[in-house]
Amino acid sequence: MQVEETEINGVVGLTPRRFADDRGWFSETWNQRTLKDAGLDIEFVQDNHSFSAPKHTVRGLHYQSPPAAQGKLVRVLRGEIFDVAVDVRKSSPTFGKWVGMNLSADNGKQLYIPTGFLHGFVTLVENTEVAYKCTDFYTPECDGGVAFDDPDLAIDWGIPKNSAVLSTKDAAAPKFADFNSPFA
Ligand SMILES: Cc1cn([C@H]2C[C@H](O)[C@@H](COP(=O)(O)OP(=O)(O)O[C@H]3O[C@@H](C)C(=O)[C@@H](O)[C@H]3O)O2)c(=O)[nH]c1=O
């Protein structure tokens, strides 16, 4: 397991080893003990899988408030995404800053995003499937969002202006300035 720190404390890139042979390859995509040894002592309770048909589908930026805050371990089963985490921990020196990583079926990379972050991704190719493990259950009453293209966040999604494909909910998401972070 290759562990890659990012510019934001707590957000970590992980690349599990792939054992190649004539058939293809084998990889442990999640091993609690290996991650504990790497400093990530996490318990997951829910696995999610989403499929996005159009290229440039943006899902995010999303969060669940405490007591249902979710840490997420994200990877791509088919296609490619640019995965983004925005630090919204009020006491963090990097509050409001974002970090992004290309995750693809080919590169096998994973991004761990702890609680206290907004999370979103853009698909870079058609028919992209994303899988992620969560540390708490889906709790709609704690669900919230912030506009992915908020100028205050200035996230470089790497896609042409106005090309994002959004859900109705995400298209109406509040501004970052109107978001009162629930994360201490
Ligand atoms: C997230 C989620 C959604 N749903 C349902 C609610 C709704 O009817 C349908 C689609 O939900 P959404 O539009 O919220 O799905 P989506 O926009 O894919 O939301 C996800 O985006 C990424 C970026 C995340 O980080 C996730 O935590 C989650 O917020 O699925 C569940 O049943 N369980 C879940 O865990």
From TrEMBL:
It is an enzyme of class 5 (isomerase). Pathway: Carbohydrate biosynthesis; dTDP-L-rhamnose biosynthesis. It comes from the Bacteria. Its EC number is 5.1.3.13. It catalyses: dTDP-4-dehydro-6-deoxy-alpha-D-glucose = dTDP-4-dehydro-beta-L-rhamnose. Keywords: Isomerase. Belongs to the dTDP-4-dehydrorhamnose 3,5-epimerase family. Catalyzes the epimerization of the C3' and C5'positions of dTDP-6-deoxy-D-xylo-4-hexulose, forming dTDP-6-deoxy-L-lyxo-4-hexulose. Homodimer. This is dTDP-4-dehydrorhamnose 3,5-epimerase. It comes from Paramylibacter ulvae.
